[in-house]
Amino acid sequence: MPSVLVERAGEVALVRLNRPQRLNAINEDIRRELPPALAALNTDPAIRAVVLAGAGERAFSSGQDLDEAAHYGPHDVERWFTELHAIYAAVREMDKPTVASITGAAAGAGYQLALHCDLRVAHPEAKIGQPEVKTGLASILGTSLMMWHQPFGMNAELSLLGDLISGERAAQLGLVNRLVPRSEVLEQAMQLAHELGARPANAIRLTKAHMRELTQARFDDMLAAVRRYQRLAYESGEPQRLFKELSKGKTS
Fold it and tell me: pLDDT by residue (tens digit) across 156-178?
């Protein structure tokens, strides 16, 4: 079974992370399958917008797969985070508008994936945030990305405490663009994507190109920083120990 599924609804493509039994946790399969799926949609003239969602009802994505991360060591850091950076780049490089449909949890790498979409739709009870520090990882990608979304003090609170906030709170902070009842999240995300897709395509493409220019240098710097700091984290042994403890029954 593919870990990334693509469905079409007219001019909108629905891309699902397809690991519902693991709360759509991001693993090597998703990191391998998502970039080419998005690249194909980006060059497909029949598609005008993309919705990114998680399979099932429990999570958009709970973040990094804990079982996988528990078996990593310092020598795996460069490959792992290069692949993770690549899935974010695949979203950023979309010339077509992208909407994240957030049901349930969007945590860690899943939260960051949603933030790379142009817009986000969620429900009040959703759980959103970056709990990396609770697993012994430094909050590097998340903190860097949050610089585009939040004042430094709020960034510090979300990054250092590592607590998940509700969808309602995320909307108040501007992290979520549309807040709707849980049963309507995907429907509203698709509707928003159709509205975006109806806008002049070239104007959208050029606007997104300029938005990338404004943030590209910092995005590129993220990769070097995350490789450096996460190697130091893994050399301490702290992530391996905490991931093994959490993987016994929890996903973050």
Answer: 999 999 999 999 999 999 999 99
